[in-house]
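@channel sequence for tomorrow's demo:
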Amino acid sequence: MSSILRTLKRCAAVGAVALAAVSLQPTTASAAPQPVVGGTTAAQGEFPWMVRLSMGCGGSLLTQQIVLTAAHCVSGSGNNTSITATAGVVDLQSSSAIKVKSTKVLQAPGYNGKGKDWALIKLAQPINLPTLNIATNTAYNTGTFTVAGWGATREGGTQQRYMRKATVPFVSDATCKQSYGNELVPAEELCAGYTQGGVDTCQGDSGGPMFRRDNAGAWIQVGIVSWGQGCARPDYPGVYTEVSTFASAIKSAAASL
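structure tokens (generated this afternoon):
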């Protein structure tokens, strides 16, 4: 479907997640912005591995010193001390927020704007908070997922001060391709959202995790907020990097940092 533009949920200066379940999606002039519906404010300490990055993206603590985010949130690989990671709080303005500078960035090898949307950011020092395990196989790629972040609550909206959360159901590759055609990379991407719209990730949520409970009841990350058509539009689910596809590469890259 050549008319679909791959709009990344980047949110550099635009925003944070005001989740109801936000997804990165391109905005077209023909469709009116829709508010993100269904999200609520997260409780302090509910998702302790959530990270807000200063370029306007989200992320998760893969280890206490490495943040997993989206490739489209960074400009390449190498030494980088320009990014500040904020963690440990729901309220970004809280005096108890933990702020740590970056030292290195590793963008997914071969990333060219389509698929492979993951990156790692090494921090100057460890953050003493719980980390989020990543899925290493497809066992948890279905069901209902949780998304969280400080992104916009509507298309074109602004970053939120308080972290929000929402739940979104799995959408099959076949159904997702009906909306996105060949722009979707089924082997590397996972879709989630509602046919009727109303709940999705949005600008500023990019790089944040999509997660669910594993069989032992622990949180596990299955996706990374990547892109989509607008925010919470009917028939346009959010598109997420399929973490299990890249789990081995992510772990190897983290060890190299």
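heads up for whoever presents: Helices lie at 173-180, 243-256.
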